[in-house]
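Students often ask what a holo structure prediction actually looks like on paper. The answer is less mysterious than it sounds. You provide the chain, you provide the ligand, and the output is a string of discrete structure tokens encoding the 3D arrangement of the protein together with FE2/S2 (inorganic) cluster.
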Amino acid sequence: MAQFRVAKESEIPDGRGLRVRVGRVEIGLYRVDGEIFAMEDLCPHAGYPLHEGDLDGPVVTCPQHLWQFDVRTGMHPGESDGWPIPCFPIRVVDGEVWIDVQLPDEDPT
Ligand code: FES
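The corresponding structure tokens follow.
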């Protein structure tokens, strides 16, 4: 797992996500009660970028067809099983957001 500095904490808006990219992975950063969370920015329904949805507490609503996800877990709110959206560990150091991401191996061909 590699660590990447992806944003300043101050760039993450309230009530919405901030999209960043690590390699080929698009990630939404969210602020929930002063804590930062990172979840892959791809709605599993039809691929819409979830960071464009409204964030209410820990729940982001996809603006396309209104599916909801808990950005802390990647799960539908109130559900504990299924196929969650990948979430990533975050560290904030001196106002900079660092993320741990396992990038897929590059294709050498
Ligand atoms: S694309 Fe997100 S709910 Fe349909």
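The pocket of FE2/S2 (inorganic) cluster is lined by residues 43, 45-46, 48, 62, 64-65, 67 (CB under 6 Å).
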